[in-house]
Amino acid sequence: MNGADTVFIIISAALVMFMTPGLALFYGGLARSKNVLGTIMQSFIALALVSLVWVLWGYSLAFGTDIGGLIGGFNFLFLKGVGQEPNPQLAGNIPHLVFMIFQCMFAVITVALITGAFAERMKFGAFLLFAVLWTTFVYSPLCHWVWGGGWMGSMGALDFAGGAVVHMSSGSAALACALVLGRRQGFGQKAFIPHNLPMTVTGAAILWFGWFGFNAGSALAADGLAANAFVTTHLAAAMAILGWISVEKMHRGQPTTLGAASGAVAGLVAVTPAAGFIGPIASIVLGFLAGGICYAGVLLKERLDYDDSLDVVGIHGLGGIWGALGTGLFASLAVNGSGANGLFFGNAGQLFIQLISIVATCAFSFVLSYVILKIVDVLIGLRVSLEDEEIGLDLSQHSETGYKF
Question: 62, 91, 60, 95: which is closest to 77 by C-alpha?
Fold first, then answer.
C-alpha cells in the first residue's frame, strides 16, 4: 500500500463529493425561486440514497467478477471482501475501501446530473424510486462495461474519468426524462429565467474545483499522469469559457455570466474522458471547441421543442460525446503508455472504437431510462399535479420556501 496515493485518492473522493452540493447550487440558481429548494434537494438526497445503493449492491454489480462482459457478480455484495487491504486487480496501491468510496462519488453525481432535465415538475418520491432503479440497472452495468472488466474496456474504448459512464449516460437519460415527463406549463410561451445567477456561478466554481479530484484522481496515484489530468482539466474549462462566450457574442450580441459558467462546465465535461490521454495543447483545442459545440446543443433544444429544463442534454450529453470523439482524435501514447494513439497520431481505428462506445452508451442509457420512467409512472406517477407545479416544488413537495420576502 502506498501512503501518498492513498491520501491523494481520499482527498480526490472528498473533492468529487463536494461537486454534488456544487451542482445543487448550479441547478438551484437556474431554477425559478419557487423551485430552488426542490431542485437543490434532488441533488442533495442523491448523496444519501445512491451511496446506500452503491454500498449494498451497486459496487458489486460494477466491479464484481465479470459475467459475460456485461455485469459484475455478487462477490462484493454488502461490501463483502472490500476492506483496508489493496485489491491489486482494481487499484493495487490503495485500500479497497478507498477505491470503492471514490467510485461511489461518481455514481452519486451522475444521478444528480439527470435531475436538471426534469427540474420543476417531478414528484420527489418518483425521483427516489427512479434513482434506485437507474443506479442499479443503468449506471452499474455501464460502469462495469468501461472500468470493471466489461466488453467496452476490453474493446479498447478510452474513458479516463467518465465521458461515457457519467456524462453520456446522464445526458441520454436526461433526454428520456424530458420526453417522458413532457414540457413544463408555459414552456415556449413565457420565459423561464434563472432566479439567482450568483448562486449558479458559485456552483460552477465549486464544480470546477471538485473536477480536479474527478479527473486527476482517476489516475489512482499521485503521479505524473495525475498532474497531466489536472492541467488538461483546467485548460479545457478555461478555453471552453472563451469558446462559449465567443459564439454567444456572435449569436446574441453580448457575452453573459451564465454563458461563462455554462462554458466552464462544458469544457470540464468534454475533457473528462480525455484528461489522462491527451496533452495540454490538445486540451486547449478540445475545450475551446466544446464551448461552441455545447452552446449549439443548447440552441438545438429550442429547435426540437423538448423541455430539458437545465440543459443536461446539450452540455453533458453532447459535451460527453464530443469529449469521447476528441479522445479518439487527440489521444497520445506519449501521455499515457497504457492507452492508445488517436487519429492525429496515426491510429484511425481508435476513433471508430470511440464511436462504437458512444452509440452503445447512449442507446443503452436512453432505452433503459425510458423503460424505468414508464415503470415508475405506473407504480406511483412521475409528475406533480398542475396545481402543485404552479405552486412550486418547494411548497408542494417539501412544505418550505427558499426565500421569505
Answer: 60
Q: Would you give the distance in Å from CA 55 to the centre of its chain? A: 20
Instruction: State the average pLDDT over residues 3-11.
Output: 97
CA-based end-to-end distance of the chain? 55
- Answer whether residue 309 shows pLDDT above 90: yes
Among all chains, which residue has been given the C-alpha cell 472490500?
82
- Cα separation, 333 vs 210, in Å, equals 27
Find all residues with CB under 8 Å of 320, minimum gap 6, and list them. 163, 164, 166, 167, 168, 171, 269, 270, 272, 273
pLDDT at 302 over 90: no
Cβ atoms 271, 233 nearer than 8 A: yes
Mean residue pLDDT of the chain comes to 97
Could you give the domains of the chain? Answer: 3-398 (1.10.3430.10)
List pLDDT tens digits, range 65-118: 999 999 999 999 999 999 999 999 998 899 999 999 999 999 999 999 999 999
How far apart are alpha carbons 249 and 93 in whole angstroms? 48
Q: For residue range 27-38, what is the model confidence (pLDDT) as tens digits?
A: 999 999 999 999
Q: Is the dihedral of CA 55, 57, 62, 67 positive or negative?
A: positive
